[in-house]
Design a protein that fits this description.
With 143 residues, the protein is of the alpha/beta class. The chain has 2 domains: 1-34, no CATH class; 36-138, no CATH class. It has 7 helices and 5 strands, in the order αααβββαβαβαα. It has a 5-stranded mixed β-sheet with strand order 1-2-3-4-5. It is globular.
Length: 143
């Protein structure tokens, strides 16, 4: 796993780990090797494009051990995402989503799809998980 990390370019490291890591701690490697699907998971949907893959959907849940409850979020942008958006706790759409989808969202990103929208959502989740409270995390805009 270490060899894989050190073979990555700095840009790839930034995109994969969302920070400018220079080295990868042993604990983080263990977290990658051991995956507990009952408590915390993220799923990303992609489609092939000429220059790589495009992220078209991202879903994540985290089980709170104190309450034994999980919340699910889904990020979408088009009519085909409605079945998922209408059955999760936090339906999220990108800024340039189809108008018929926007009305079903609780959160709309400030950035369009393909231009940092998923990063915006990940940053919001990270603030929440790190304990930031109030308006810094709220971010839920009336749509």
């Amino acid at each position: 796993m270490k060899d894989l990390f050190y073979d990555l370019s700095q840009q790839t490291v930034y995109y994969r780990f969302m920070s400018d890591l220079k080295r990868i701690p042993r604990k983080q490697i263990q977290d990658f090797v051991y995956i507990d699907h009952r408590n915390d998971i993220a799923v990303v949907g992609t489609v092939p494009e000429a220059d790589g893959e495009k992220i078209v959907a991202i879903g994540r849940y985290f089980l709170d051990p104190t309450t034994n409850l999980a919340e699910v979020a889904f990020v979408g942008n088009d009519i085909n995402d409605l079945p998922c958006l209408t059955c999760v706790a936090l339906p999220i759409v990108v800024h340039d989503a189809h108008p018929d989808v926007i009305v079903h969202a609780l959160y709309r990103t400030s950035r369009p799809g393909g231009y940092g929208a998923v990063r915006e959502v990940c940053d919001l989740f990270e603030k929440y998980r790190s304990g930031v409270q109030g308006s810094e995390v709220q971010g839920l805009r009336p749509i």
